[in-house]
Specification:
This protein has helices at residues 4-22, 27-40, 49-59, 79-97. The chain is mainly alpha-helical and 98 residues long.
């Protein structure tokens, strides 16, 4: 039988994961965020070390710890894309400051 605190944590994690998945978030990200939020409960800011440890353990079922990032270097974006990004960012910043 689960303790009331464990049941509350599981309910919060289930609720947060379902909401995040409906919004298009990856399974690992929503499990990590939901678990840290449930463990820390009302804490704001960065998750505590305990919450990160619990969340990493919860995510192992989704993504084993042996999974590695793709080592191939990423290609550099075209110069035009960078220029357009800088112009759009400048316009957005200018518009927001008014």
């Amino acid at each position: 039988m689960r303790s009331p605190e464990t049941e509350r944590l599981l309910t919060e994690v289930r609720r947060a994961v379902a909401t995040a998945r409906a919004g298009g978030v990856t399974a690992r990200a929503c499990i990590f965020d939901a678990t840290t939020a449930a463990v820390d409960e009302k804490a704001g800011g960065w998750p505590t070390a305990e919450a990160r440890r619990v969340a990493d353990n919860a995510c192992r079922a989704v993504e084993p710890p042996t999974v590695m990032a793709d080592p191939t270097p990423r290609t550099k974006p075209p110069a035009l894309a960078g220029l357009l990004w800088n112009v759009a960012n400048w316009l957005a910043t200018r518009k927001a400051s008014r």
